Automatic annotation (TrEMBL), chains A, B, C:
Pfam families: Ammonium_transp. One of its GO terms (cellular component) is plasma membrane. Keywords: Membrane, Transmembrane, Transmembrane helix. This is Ammonium transporter AmtB-like domain-containing protein. Residues 36-406 form the Ammonium transporter AmtB-like domain. It is found in: Membrane. It comes from Pygocentrus nattereri. Belongs to the ammonium transporter (TC 2.A.49) family. Rh subfamily. The keyword Membrane applies. One of its GO terms (molecular function) is ammonium channel activity. The chain crosses the membrane at residues 21-43, 70-91, 103-124, 182-200, 220-239, 251-271, 304-324, 382-403. Functions as an ammonia transporter. May play a role in the elimination of ammonia in the gill. PANTHER family: AMMONIUM TRANSPORTER, AMMONIUM TRANSPORTER AMTB-LIKE DOMAIN-CONTAINING PROTEIN. Coiled coil: none annotated.
């Protein structure tokens, strides 16, 4: 591997790199925190369900909105911090980075989204009014950020993550006004692809020695998948109408996920030369159904339709992982590290188009609030979808350019996917075996998510 | 271990073995999915709480059944996918198989149970009516399947698991009609024992080199135990009557589990030659109380009785692990891989008998709905218990015979407990140390669950 | 490291040590269980929400208290058994001890607290009346025990843990009468420091070869942090008034934790020579905000104040880890293994003082129930705080003396932080690499929690 001489050089390079973090990261975080706390002090107050002064003798404590909102909020917290955190720790030597940068990013994304969404949606009498419902909305914005970041996992510094966060949130929340939560996955995906297009690293197309999993990291990652799988119904129903709408949302999500799970196992064995299952498929593609039912999750689409959407989205996602992602990287300079285009882009597109069709079917004589015919409404929604993709991609590319600024501590190619760059690592870090025979092993090892060496 | 020559032979054998999976698994899964989606399309519709057309102006959204059902449903999902998934990953090299085949099996079991139970219990006006309550019932049927499979963990292929699933569910749901959820553990146990009796592998009685745990797998497994422990009250109360019944069920389950936990630690140190604690005991025997209170969990049995049941069930379970399981394997050709007879059979029997006695005690002048005296009712229930065991065992044996068919990709003895048979494994898979000195170590290592070499 | 000769001696020493566990642990546990079950049989019965005989035709099942209490109870169970269990498994070779002794201790603490609190707070008509609300109260007492034990992690036997448990609970519940749940953290911290002061081990001041983390143990530990982080709002609100009080408690806890998380990352990079992040900081200091908002969590303190408390508590906690803990160990003979003084002591003090100030501010003309002025009330509360600390410290030292009794199987210095003393360990236990170059590495490795070798 490395002789003592180059190891010393390595340590020097590393130290110079992370020395930036010693000033830049605290400086950035403290600046942001000062901004947040000032905005909180000036603008943020309690809403009707959190303000003690607005409770009267007539108020029934158990009818406080918190009892309806908090359970879903907590479920989605588990998805964000635990599910996503574990899922992203699949790299053999980027477990700390995966789980812990997710922790930092998500925390900050939610804080910032509370403020932005506060100004756009919860602002009256000169104040942002805060309750758990704001937190749920902020979680959705946070999900956009985390999905986008999947495209560049292992290739950025925490400074870059925090800087890009603003741009993502602001763009998303401008667009979200008209689209509702349908566009979360689509927006997040194409924004992330825009970023990674600009941050293209040619040398990574031949693979990277640390771009592989270990037995334990694969286990932890699939555990993350299971957390996301179990609580996805909460995510899909949290912002739908209470009552039968939320009940249908839960049902459809469960059915869609079940269908995509079974289909994922089938396709994984089928598309693998030696008929073996790939852990990367189990970690990612099983979740496709949750995204694909998303846009029509509260409609009366029938349980069979939810099942069909699960199977369809899963198939598109799997084919994307096997064929489209390598093509995007090789030909279009889009290195999609976690394959977000398969799990959120393709499935999100199918989901949105399906919802438009279903809406046509379910309500034939539909006249939208603005007096459109059904056909016009469909065209309007397709246009909204198209402009969302365009704006997301452009926003992503602009953010990518921003991230190329020299002071943001971007890791060099050599130090991607490497915890040692930003963390103190334990004694056994360097003793973990790294893939020795990179040539043949690397090409055949489909158990490494995103490990497409001959990009 | 193996020289290059036999490693090549090994890889050949393995490839031939799993090549079966490349056609058989997708073929089976797609066939099943087509069947499911057709049945869904023809027969499955929304129930009163999920059908938008049945909601009126008078309907109060927050009184929708989903708000009572979904929390328990989600808790049990965590037990099934996360708790059980982690618990079953105790083998050093069968972590992928344990956690991921549990994922596949559970998903399919719930889907199939929704249909079968739908036809038996939720069918009217020519349709199965679906809501989250159906999902909860399906989770219980799924638990039967997963418990049964514990008897053969590491010794089957996913094709075998899916094939046997039908039989288990159909049998269970025929029997369950009269027994309620009391018989879950008993049925699952003896069905599983029936299967493993037929699938007896003589060479495994001397132990298997991969039939041991690693430090990380033991940690992940006990984490699974903790998930099951924390949410078992939800499992035991989900199908009891709302109100004080559910409250008692939660209370008794917690007390019973606490008692069995303390007792398990005591017995583990006591029954171990060197006075050390065994992780296998902590992973399994601590849970015994949850099963043992199960049959009387909503009755007015007094908290002290719940405590006593916990201690009793734990003791039976521990003695079973130490003495009965080796005997069953050595003399009766029943290789109970996870010791389900101890955790679900013995405890389930104690639970059922205790419930019968308690019912006698609590309601002396009991006249059952069919006009029986108390004594007759007790005899009737004992008869139901006996016939359940018999039917389960026979059903299990028939399923075992079915699983011996040649096209189901059954692993040879050599490839049991080995992820490499069905999964692409990461680079560090073969570098994990395997027990070298199998003789003395193996006999004394009680930390390996089910590691009873001299069967 | 060790030659065969001393390894044999080691095994002898170890065997003699744990042989004590074979008799002592079961004897102690069985004695305690007999005591518990007798007390249950004589004194414990159902409360109004669990007693079937007290339900009438007018009773609405869904208004049973269990539906308000159980969700918070289950969330806190997840924190206690899973969150804390994972967090405490950061030592490379004390994972079993960390997670499993936490399991044993917590189970027994809750059982014992149910009885003690039962006699103090739920006793009428000659009986302790039991429902899930009792369990929630018991969880809080359990938290006191677990926090205290953090000071001596890896340095005690399970026998010592169970013996000291009584003392802690009894002391705490005597004091808690007047203080509410504000004093949990403060009491637990100074009790634990009292214990560790008496159990001072001079040789540990130069560090211990096993007092370090591994890559996997650091991952599992931060996963525990995430569980605690996600559910801390449930912990802080479970015993506050229903309605807007609980809603504010959830909001403030979330805000406080978010603030301390961001601040922790900033300070971790800033205070580290090489600007790298330390996993120990991410595992512990991110949680400081949850403690610091605790005492005023249901008051109308404004969201900005919650944010400020989070930042403040985090800063105190981090400075404590970096500078105060080494000083306490080096100069005051207080070896605080997990740094509980930073995460619970300093933050708890800030929290309590802040609450006193806020109460002054919020209610200027306050006349406490006993006719005091606002100033008098503040002085009274400060006196209560001071006496709590004094009583806790003294109680802790007395307990420490008790733990020095010869029959409690205390590990020798050599066998601290070592699972092999009390557990059967898997084959790969001794192959895990231990820090080789202890001198320079040890001093710089801030990723090991509590690893302050030059105490």
């Amino acid at each position: 591997q490395m002789n003592t001489c180059s190891k010393a050089q390595n340590t020097d390079k590393m130290t110079k790199n992370s020395a930036n973090l010693r000033v830049r990261l605290p400086a950035l975080i403290f600046a942001l925190e000062v901004m947040i706390i000032v905005l909180y002090a000036v603008f943020v107050t309690y809403d009707d369900h959190t303000n003690a002064l607005l409770q009267t003798n007539m108020t029934k404590p158990m009818e406080n909105a918190v009892y309806q909102d908090y359970p879903f909020f907590a479920d989605i917290q588990m998805m964000i911090f635990i599910g996503f955190g574990c899922l992203l720790s699949f790299f053999q030597r980027y477990g700390f980075g995966g789980m812990v940068f997710n922790f930092l990013t998500a925390t900050f994304a939610i804080q910032w989204a509370i403020l932005i969404q506060g100004f756009f949606h919860f602002y009256y009498d000169g104040k942002i009014h805060l309750g758990v419902i704001n937190l749920i909305n902020a979680e959705f914005a946070c999900a956009v950020v985390l999905i986008s970041f999947g495209a560049v996992l292992g290739k950025t510094s925490p400074v870059q993550l925090l800087v890009s966060l603003f741009e993502i949130l602001f763009e998303y929340l401008k667009i979200n006004d008209a689209g509702g939560s349908i566009l979360i996955h689509v927006f997040a995906c194409y924004f992330g692809l825009g970023v990674t297009f600009i941050l293209y690293r040619p040398s990574l197309n031949d693979g990277h020695s640390k771009e592989c999993t270990s037995y334990q990291s694969d286990m932890l990652s699939v555990l993350g998948t299971l957390f996301l799988w179990v609580f996805w119904p909460s995510f899909n129903c949290a912002l739908t109408l209470r009552g039968d709408d939320q009940h249908r949302a839960i049902l459809h999500t469960f059915i869609g996920l079940s269908a995509s799970t079974l289909t994922a196992f089938a396709l994984s064995a089928m598309l693998n030369k030696n008929g073996k299952l790939s852990m990367a498929d189990v970690q990612n593609v099983t979740l496709a159904g949750g995204v694909t039912v998303g846009a029509s999750v509260d409609m009366m689409i029938t349980p069979a339709a939810a099942y069909a959407l699960g199977m369809l989205g899963c198939t598109a996602c799997m084919l994307g992982y096997k064929y489209l992602s390598p093509f995007l990287a090789r030909r279009l300079r889009v290195q999609d590290q976690c394959g977000i285009h398969n799990l959120h882009g393709l499935t999100g597109l199918i989901s949105t188009v399906a919802a438009i069709c279903e809406l046509q079917e379910l309500i034939p004589g539909l006249k939208a609030g603005l007096g459109r015919t059904a056909k016009e409404q469909a065209l309007y929604q397709l246009a909204a979808l198209g402009s969302t993709i365009a704006l997301a991609a452009v926003g992503g590319m602009l953010t990518g350019l921003l991230l190329k600024l020299p002071y943001l501590a971007s890791p060099s190619d050599e130090f991607c996917f490497d915890d040692e760059l930003f963390f103190n690592v334990p004694a056994d870090y360097n003793q973990a075996p790294v893939a020795q025979d990179l040539g043949p092993f690397h090409l055949q090892d489909a158990s490494s998510k995103g490990c497409f060496p001959s990009f």
